[in-house]
Design a protein that fits this description.
Length: 448
């Protein structure tokens, strides 16, 4: 997410390091590079102009802090302006005082509406709601079947009524929700390959007959400025209340996220960060601004960890670390916990201080599976006492895991180093962390 934009902005701030004082010449040069980075990141040119004007005004005003270096001053100002542009604070979904709450998901065909309907249904169920769904796309034969399959995968009830009238389908869904005590009705509306009068007329009629509490525009972030234009048109006709950006884990340059909020004036409420049905995150402007600037996102990382980490296992591991009894079985458990948090490149994206060259590189999650396969191919005794793994045993483990003896040797060396560092942390944590940083080639900056 935002890799290209993050890298270009990072180079801009780096060029200011070592300067003793922030001058107007520094600001002009930095703004020129920031403008270019934003335009190349597919941010709308009017958004770029407004953003750079605000940055210049603040940088030349009285808000610059003498305690900060020039690169830190510009970084702070850019972050503050990005937060303002993206919406300042997270805007939660609205719900009707009297259930059911009707939520329209609108957008062009191929933007990910149906998949997002399933993801949002799963997120709502996890947060204590009882959602159900209905597809009002009566022209595309596979549309309703696609929703059925996705809903089945996430445990989301779907209205099965056969009708070619979107209003009749919506009426049936509302009635079913009232009778069965579902408090949210997710409406997967019809999409087209382009915006036309018939599509808009149908959506307006649905909205008039059954007013939704939320009208969300689902936009494919990879379509860039096309998504921005269609969002503007949908908002003019339907008065959108929010936006969901999909495919933010792909090769999107990030410009749509910065532009849609400005064009519609409506908040981005969620972002899709992967293909799995739990890969939907509430949108927090301050956290996203930090990610764009390469500052990480510790709060989201903590939330992911709280959702996936087994607290009892974590406490047990902590006790083992105190006693220096960390084994390969514990290491395998940690690998499994890490896999639950999502793709490694997204986890790296949230960690502050990770160097751009590390943050931007593709991380192969299959390597974790290979490590897990190696450990699974060992006997319980070998996992608890890796020192018994002689040449014969290592060849057997390699055959059983489909790997090589070299890979097993590498794993055992890394594990031995990890145990050594953990023992060292009992005596001096800071020194051990510095050694750990050196282990990564000095690329990971530590706040020590």
């Amino acid at each position: 997410m935002f890799e290209a934009l993050t890298e270009k902005l990072g180079r801009t701030f780096k060029s200011l390091r070592g300067e003793g004082k922030l001058s107007e010449a520094h600001i002009t040069e930095a703004l020129s590079q920031i403008r270019l980075a934003l335009l190349e990141g597919d941010v709308h040119f009017q958004v770029v102009q407004q953003l750079t004007d605000n940055i210049r005004r603040r940088a030349l005003g009285q808000e610059v802090l003498l305690a900060l270096s020039p690169d830190q001053q510009v970084l702070k100002i850019v972050r503050d302006e990005l937060v303002q542009l993206l919406g300042v604070a997270h805007t939660p979904l609205q719900f009707a005082k009297k259930p059911p709450s009707i939520i329209f998901l609108t957008g062009l065909q191929g933007s990910g509406k149906t998949t997002t309907t399933g993801k949002l249904g799963k997120w709502l169920a996890k947060t204590g709601h009882r959602p159900m769904a209905v597809s009002t796309d009566v022209r595309r034969p596979a549309a309703r079947e696609q929703l059925r399959q996705i809903a089945r995968a996430v445990g989301l009830p779907v209205v099965e009524k056969e009708s070619s009238d979107p209003l009749e389908l919506l009426k049936a869904a509302k009635r079913e929700a009232e009778l069965s005590a579902y408090d949210v009705v997710l409406v997967d509306t019809q999409g087209r390959l382009h915006i036309d009068a018939e599509l808009m007329g149908e959506l307006e009629a649905m909205k008039k007959a059954y007013p939704p509490v939320e009208t969300l525009f689902v936009a494919d972030a990879m379509t860039g400025q096309d998504a921005v234009k269609s969002a503007g048109t949908f908002h003019e006709r339907l008065s959108l209340t929010g936006v969901i950006l999909t495919k933010m884990d792909g090769d999107a340059r990030g410009g749509a996220a910065l532009s849609i909020r400005w064009v519609t004036g409506q908040p981005i409420k969620f972002i899709g960060t992967g293909e799995k049905y739990d890969a939907l995150e509430p949108f927090h402007p301050d956290r996203i601004a930090s990610r764009i600037l390469g500052l990480g996102d510790v709060l989201s990382l903590i939330e992911k960890a709280e959702e996936t980490v087994d607290r009892a296992k974590a406490e047990e591991l902590e006790e083992k670390l105190r006693r220096a009894e960390f084994t390969l079985e514990d290491f395998r458990d940690q690998l499994r916990q890490l896999k639950k948090m999502g793709p490694l490149d997204q986890v790296l994206d949230m960690i502050p201080g990770v160097a751009p060259e590390v943050r931007g590189q593709a991380v192969d999650d299959r390597k974790l599976k290979r490590l897990e396969a190696i450990i699974d191919s060992m006997t319980p005794k070998e996992r608890r006492r890796p020192d018994v793994l002689d040449g014969r045993r290592r060849r057997r483990v390699a055959r059983g895991s489909g790997t090589t003896v070299q890979e097993i040797n590498q794993l055992l060396r890394q594990f031995a180093e990890m145990r050594r560092l953990m023992k060292a942390m009992k005596g001096g944590e800071k020194e051990a962390m510095r050694k750990l940083a050196a282990r990564f080639g000095g690329k990971m900056k530590l706040p020590l």
